[in-house]
Amino acid sequence: MYHRLSPMSEFDEKAATWDDDPSRVKRAEDIVVRLKSTIDLSQVKSAMEYGSGTGLMSFVLKEDIREIILMDDSVKMTKVARQKITD
């Protein structure tokens, strides 16, 4: 018998070191640059990032959008994001 981890438990296992990968940080920054070139954020007062993981994109957007709600199925990813918010 073998046990396969569910996708969320795999993300839970990776949560603590997720932001340590420079390619993930760079990808979030690149996505935000593209988003800003497409959408005028000056009128955006709040947003929700679903599948936010540790909040990499939201942290890049925090100077542009006053309130961002982060949501993710991975409990540990959201714990990391919450810790980053309180730091």
Could you explain the architecture of this structure?
Strands 1-2 form a two-stranded parallel sheet. It has helices at 7-14, 22-38, 56-61, 75-86, and strands at 46-50, 67-71. It has a domain at 40-87. The protein has 87 residues and is mainly alpha-helical. The chain starts with 6 loop residues before the first helix and ends with a helix.
Strand content: 5-15%
Helix count equals: 4
Count of extended strands: 2
Structural class by secondary-structure content: mainly alpha
Distance between the termini: 43 Å
- Report the helical percentage: 40-55%
- Biggest sheet character: 2 strands, parallel
**Stretches where pLDDT falls below 50 for ≥5 residues?**
none
Average pLDDT, all residues: 92
Q: What sequence of helices (H) and strands (E) makes up the elements? A: HHEHEH
Radius of gyration: 14 Å
The rough form would be described as: globular
- Specify the oligomeric state: single chain
Strand order of the largest sheet: 1-2
Describe the structure in brief.
It contains four helices and two strands.
Note the topology.
Elements: H1 7-14, H2 22-38, E1 46-50, H3 56-61, E2 67-71, H4 75-86
Parallel strand pairs: 1-2
Please supply descriptive tags for the structure shown above.
single chain; 87 residues; mainly alpha; two-stranded parallel sheet; 2 strands
